[in-house]
Amino acid sequence: MAACKLLTRERATQLLANIDTVLTDCDGVLWQGMEALPGAAKTIAKLREMGKRVLFVTNNSTKSRLSYVEKFKNLGFEANEDEVYGTAYIAALYLKNIAKVTGKVYLVGNTEMAKELDLQGISYTGTGPDPIEGTVTDWKTLPLDPEVTTVLIGFDEHLSYMKMIKAASYLSNENVQFVATNTDEKLPVGNGRVIPGTGCILAAVHTAADRDPIILGKPSKFMFEVMKEKFDLDPNRTLMIGDKLNTDIMLGHNCGLTTLLVLSGVTSLDQARQMQASNSIEHQKCVPHYYLPNMGELGDLL
After folding, report:
1. What pTM, to 2 d.p., does this model score?
2. Cβ of 126: how many Cβ atoms within 10 Å?
């Protein structure tokens, strides 16, 4: 059972001596929106100086790997394409190598997800605005693309009732695969504003289709398994850093990793303590081994 201990200098020294690879979330850990969080870039640089492999793991599907590398550079971080694992990329890999998709994907997503599908040679339809037209009478005879064999749900700023109709209708065929990038309820933006996340879009389609999707993002093991295979990672010598309990920290527990919660994003220490006090097995999976106020403080301990 994880202890949710404050990471002190002594504990950090002992911990990092037994860690080869550091996985870190991005939003709420390294940056907020388009602003890097204080000290985060220096911490990443220090970890690399210590010989640690650093990999970036995010549920955000709104950027391809190339777009993420550009963002890292603009915010003062060093990163290359092979170090970035976002759900747009992970979904494309899954559809090509695991699902072995033939035909087309109906994509409730965005142009960055489309870029990753293009790179894997996967055909798709559905991107861009698709406003509702007509009435129920028209919708009952709505033409569907017979080549669609998979529905993929990600973040789609153009979500519409028409897209929900089409996605659920394709999924009424049990042979059509149902895949989603992640279940995050909202984006960590703060400022008294709530930006619904992919989980909200997925919930609508899931409810209408009455089918359970395959979830690829955190806390699913799939993201880690892809990295583990590529880099021959040892879970016992891997640290997962994140700001969200039911994605970042649960991923760590699901994969046998050591976990560090930073309180610079969507989670408070009180919330972590509530999970720790719970008798629920699922809640216990959300309890981190260690916590710190922010990523910059980790650098100060190194």
Report:
1. 0.94
2. 22
d(CA 80, CA 103): 32
CA distance 161 to 78: 41
- Contact criterion met (CB below 8 Å) for 40 and 300: no
Run of H or E including 222: helix 221-231
* Encoded tokens for 60: 């955000």
**53: enclosing H helix or E strand:** strand 53-58
Rounded Cα–Cα distance for residues 94 and 250 (Å): 21
Helix (H) or strand (E) run with residue 148 in it: strand 148-153
Catalytic residue check, 210: no
Give one word for 178, left, alpha or beta, with left for phi > 0 and alpha for psi -120 to 50: beta
Q: Which residue out of 20, 27, 243, 300 is catalytically annotated?
A: 27
Q: Is residue 27 among the annotated active site residues?
A: yes
Token pair of 32 as six digits: 């907020």
For residues 253 and 259, is the Cβ–Cβ distance under 8 A?
yes
CA angle 248, 40, 299 (to 5 degrees): 95
Separation CA 241–CA 219 (nearest Å): 13
Give the max Cα distance, the chain. Answer: 68
Q: Looking at residue 268, what is its pLDDT?
A: 94
Over the chain (302 residues), the average pLDDT of each successive run of 10 is 91 97 96 94 97 97 96 96 97 97 97 98 97 95 97 98 98 98 84 89 98 97 96 98 96 98 94 95 96 97 94
Residue 18: C-alpha distances to residues 2, 48, 272, 291 (Å): 17, 15, 25, 17
Report the alpha-carbon distance of residue 20 to residue 196 in Å, rounded: 36
Catalytic residue among 25, 130, 243, 248: 25
Contacting residues for 160 by C-beta, under 8 A, at least 6 apart: 129, 130, 131, 132
The DSSP letter of residue 236 is: G
